[in-house]
Each structure stands twice: as structure tokens, then as C-alpha cells.
Amino acid sequence: MTDAADTTPRAPAWKRYLTLALLAAAFIAFFAAGGxxxxxxxxxxxxxxxxxxxxxxxxxxxxxxxxxxxxISTAASLPIGTVLTLAGGFxxxxxxxxxxxxxxxxxxxxxxxxxxxxxxxxxxxxKVGAALGKMREGFEENAFSYILALRLAPVFPFxxxxxxxxxxxxxLKSFVAATALGIIPGTFVFASVGAGLDAVFAKGxxxxxxxxxxxxxxxxxxxxxxxxxxxxxxxxxxxxxxxxSAKQ
Length: 248
What we know:
The protein is mostly helical. It has helices spanning 4-7, 13-32, 35-38, 41-46, 48-57, 59-75, 81-92, 94-127, 130-141, 143-152, 160-168, 172-182, 184-195, 197-202, 215-228, 230-247.
């Protein structure tokens, strides 16, 4: 019997690749326009007073503009996430800035996830071999735990973790939930550093981002990542015990 999914006509290729093409165009345009000069710590230091004044006068517009900018930068995989997160903490404070960042980053990551899934998921599903097929099935079954662990302890670049789950067959629900939860700790660490930038800039200094990689920050994130894998380990352990009991 033929699956219903197999009889569903695929969208034309140009439609499936359109979003990715637009995101790629945004990525190229950012560098062509010298975007790195305008969105940097140096630029933030130079314009901090004007930015703070405008935000104070237009808090809702500033918050919406920040979320939109973060959505675009994340979806297009622009290399400005760290600066934006620090800027969010600087402008809005740790709590509000961190919260706005989580919203923008999650939405932007979801856009890229959907774009990659629409463009390439069918190809990867059809082409993977038996071994990779089993790995894909395992990822599909435990997508939330895997994504959450990798978000908490970011071993891979952020944009990789937006695309890879789409190709591995993760559900949209698992991706969004794990992404939103997983980026919270790291985001608020960066936002808290950003909240203290004004004093650093006033002294003509540069922020010490090394604090983010200190053991007191990294260790809890690693432990949380390991804890998020507990359901998978439990399932595998209890599954093996059940298999042994059935054979006896």
C-alpha cells in the first residue's frame, strides 16, 4: 500500500529553494554593504548614548526592531549573534535583553530550519543508507533531547544546529521547544555581560568575553546538557534490560 506522503506532489524546485536563496542573498548583501562595521562592539561604544536615548524614548519600537534584527541575522546566519546579544543586554538590561534575544533567535532559527527542511529533507530521506537511516530514526525519536543538549553545550556553530536537525528529520515542535529552552542559559550569560558594558566603555576599555568560558559558567551548561540526555540513556538502558529478560 502506498503511503499518502508518497502521493503528495512536491512543490516546484524554485519554491522549495526560494527561502534559502533569499537568506543567502541577505548573507551576501550584509558583507557587500560592510555590515560588520556597523554592527560591532566599536560601533556600539561610539553610539551608545544615542542608542540608549532613542530606546528610552521608544521602548516598544526599540524592542520590536531588536527582535526583527535578531530574526534576520539568525535566519541568514550572519556572524553577529554575539554582538547583538551583548547589545541587547546593554540596551535593555539582562532580563529584558535576554528575553528579547531568545524570542528573536528562536524565530530566526525556526525560519532557517523550515527552509532547509523544505529544500533538502526529501533528498536526504531518499538517499541515506541503512546505517544512516537507523541514525536518522534514532534522532527523530529523541530529537528534543539531542537538540537541547547541543544547544546547552554548543559544540557546533549555531547555524549548523539550525540546519542539521531539519536534515535529520526532527519535528518542528521538538526543534522549537529544544531551541528556546536550550539557548536560555547562554543567552542570559551574554546579556549580563552586555548589561555591564556602559561602565567598560566609559573607561575606554574592552569587554572581557573570557568570563563566558570560565569553569563556573561552562561547567553548569555541560552538566545541564548531560542531564538533558538522561531520558535517552534511560530508554536505552531499560530497553536492553527488557530485551535480555525476553530472551531468558
